[in-house]
Amino acid sequence: MVNQERPVKAIVLAAGKGTRLQSDGYAIPKVMRLAAGRPLLAYVLDALGFIAHENIVLVVGYLREQVTEAFPDCAAAVQEEQLGTGHAVACAMEALADYEGDVLVCCGDMPLIRQETYLALAEQHAREGNACTMLTGTSDEALPYGRILRGENGEFCAIVEEKDCTPEQREIKELNSGVYMFRAAELRQALGGLRTDNAQGEYYLTDVPALLLRAGEKVGVCCRELGKEILGVNTPEQLEQISRLLEE
Predict the structure, then answer these.
(1) What's this model's pTM, rounded to 2 decimal places?
(2) Least C-beta-crowded within 10 Å: which of 114, 134, 137, 231?
(3) Catalytic residue among 20, 38, 150, 224
(4) Taking 90 as the threshold, does the pLDDT of residue 23 lie above it?
């Protein structure tokens, strides 16, 4: 289990509208979509059961009252504009202004990641004394996720979002899951260095590990065979697939 003497809080990204899920006419935040009868976010919070709800910050945006009313025990940070994952985490860090412990960042629309996976990430982060440890992995699924770039000696170099990948980089099998552990102070500083010179014109959280490396901080990679755990929900078809998997 996570060392209880080492404080851990969590930021769950839950502000999205889920535009491609809106064709059914129901106005509902993406993380409140039902899979096997429960909101996607409920499964994520279950897996984060080793962190007390009062130590979890939900980044909310679209129809945020639906999220905060369903999960009133969690703190909430409002992302008024959708300016990227880096911006979302920066909004949450305002609610953690005086906090200096470890921060787990994950996505509210990825209900298949198991508690043991989150724990493995947290334990490696603490053991190695990293400023940042990212969860990466391989999967047989064809997914539009960022790729992990490594150097000649296998060391982490950067994450490249799929939209910014060269054809060669798209062939890389190690994917970014979007789940990270950070030391709060180093994360706070790196967020201030984010820029929007990318294909989406957004503040990418994926740029933070490389910024930390350049600042001389220690960045680690927890690479696992994630299989279907790494699946998220963006389309009705993905929601149906995840519902089937949760019912198995």
Answers:
(1) 0.93
(2) 114
(3) 20
(4) no
